[in-house]
Design goal:
Blueprint: E1 11-15, H1 19-31, E2 36-40, H2 43-52, E3 57-61, H3 72-78, E4 89-93, H4 98-107, E5 111-114, H5 119-131, E6 136-139, E7 142-145, E8 166-168, H6 175-180
Parallel strand pairs: 1-2, 1-3, 3-4, 4-5
Antiparallel strand pairs: 6-7, 6-8
């Protein structure tokens, strides 16, 4: 687990977005001491970078184009050759409507940040994702962080799902096998 004092050593990937949004993110990260920020305009290039370089987090714009017909998050989670398919992926949107948030969650996005978003919120969400990450779920139709955010404890009652997803605790060396499950 990464300590907060190591923020300056983080590598962050920013995908797509208007130049002004990218500059705001760079400024926020710079104030936090994160100076290693890589920005790319195209999702396809970002997925290629995720296959060749390690990043602590990815921030993408809601206008990111699809990669080979898949949303960016699916390509970044289930693509072949990824170095870390469990990298936290944050989606920045202009208007976070419920349907858009649910779709993002179902494609493997770690968290959705609605504009205007404060620097404090960006850094708080990043710290939570790095210090206390949610467990990843490997199921036939989904690979990503557990979509259920628990604040009220477990739900009482019997299990009513027909199929149960398998929770896996995956280390980086085990990640490729977990994606194939």
């Amino acid at each position: 687990m990464r300590e907060l004092s190591e923020l300056k050593d983080l590598r962050v990937l920013v995908v797509g977005g208007k130049p002004s949004s990218v500059q705001i993110l760079r400024t926020v990260f710079g104030v936090a001491g994160i100076n290693n920020v890589v920005t790319v305009a195209e999702s396809r290039i970002a997925v290629n970078l995720l296959c060749s370089e390690r990043f602590a987090a990815v921030f993408c714009d809601d206008r990111c184009e699809s990669v080979a017909g898949q949303p960016f998050a699916l390509a970044a989670r289930r693509g072949t050759g990824l170095l870390n398919p469990m990298v936290p992926i944050f989606l920045l949107c202009s208007a976070a409507r419920r349907r858009q948030v649910e779709h993002a969650r179902d494609t493997g996005i770690t968290d959705v940040l609605a504009r205007p978003v404060s620097a404090a919120t960006i850094l708080r969400k990043l710290r939570i994702a790095l210090v206390k990450p949610r467990p990843f779920i490997a199921a036939p139709d989904f690979f990503g962080p557990d979509r259920r955010v628990r604040e009220h404890g477990p739900i009482a009652g019997e299990e009513r799902r027909r199929r149960s997803a398998k929770k896996v605790k995956v280390t980086l060396k085990d990640a490729p096998e977990a994606v194939l499950e």
